[in-house]
Amino acid sequence: MNNLIFRKLSADIFYFFLTASLTITLIVWVVQAVNFLDIISEDGYSIKVYFAYTVLSLPKIFSRILIFIFFISYFYILIKYEDNNEILVFWTNGIKKINLINFLFRYSVIFLFVQYFLTLFLVPYSQNISRIYLKNANIDFLPSLISEKKFINVFKNLTIFIEKYDQNGKFTNIYLNENIDNLSSKIIMAQTGKIQKRNNFFSLKLFDGTIIDSNSNNSYKINFKETEYDLSRFSTNTVTSIKIQQINSKNLILCAFEYYQKNEVNNKYCLNRKIDSVLEESYKRMIIPLYIFILSLISSCLLIRPKNYNLSKYYNWIIFISGFVVIILSQVAFKFLLKNFLLDGVVILFPILLVIFFYLTLLIKKNFKLRYL
Description:
Elements: H1 2-35, H2 38-41, H3 47-55, H4 58-83, H5 88-92, H6 97-136, H7 142-145, E1 151-152, E2 158-165, E3 170-179, E4 185-198, E5 201-214, E6 219-230, H8 249-262, H9 275-286, H10 291-300, H11 309-313, H12 315-332, H13 341-365
Helix pairs in contact: 1-4, 3-6, 4-6, 4-10, 4-12, 6-10, 8-9, 10-12, 10-13
């Protein structure tokens, strides 16, 4: 009978968590997808690339809201059980409050593993895949981005200006400025031209113009009747270099350990990166999920009502605000990293210390007996 009761409780928590998390994830995803429209309107990517890029952001969104939805799920279900007097089923079947608290604590391990899977593996992988996909994707909307008498900076290190652009796709008076490096540049001017596409890559077919190559020492000019300017060798202005969030978790954590051991980082994945960003990302992936245990115990405090009426009246709000404060604390505690080694240790161990504190408090409140563990 007790197994059936616990099974129903776990099912109620899981279904509420699943419904709430999916709903909020989709809402955030839609809002974020609107912000990503720039990769079509400004960077010239196709709708297919845009959709794939936005879909790959779903694991990141879900991982960010998981800890909050977990707390809401525990809090809501326990309040619901109390309001509907369903909580009495536990007590009438001889289930002690500490047994229920222990069950809720053990059940939270499932959510901890889900969060670790997301933060350590799926999110960095999906973010890196989206970066590679965007980097390798062709700019399919290039023709629609070109307009008359406007400087176009779709490509990195390349500026395009066209005086006239007719409906047949023919350009008149074309100006291209390619920055080769800090000291060298190439300018191409042509009377007419058009865009052509071969093997899914764009190029400019130019007629009757001049190429001017210049560097710090000299410059030379070449006239041409017809030439083809390959655009496939240019990358877009969209950031496609690897970010700290896209680094493999193993390499990132090795960077953090290397810093604490040698006070420097020689790992090739973390070179030229600020150590505070490395430690911050490591903290987000490894330490923040541990706060799930604390939120489980804070929610469990709903089972222990104070005898004082005035305190009991606002008790639910006190528990909710306490959980919310812990969530905020989990997100900002990394700001204290790199102060000194001792403080770093406290920040890293803080969730474990909080778990011990809350659990011992609950044991004391329920007249601790070893058989209840």
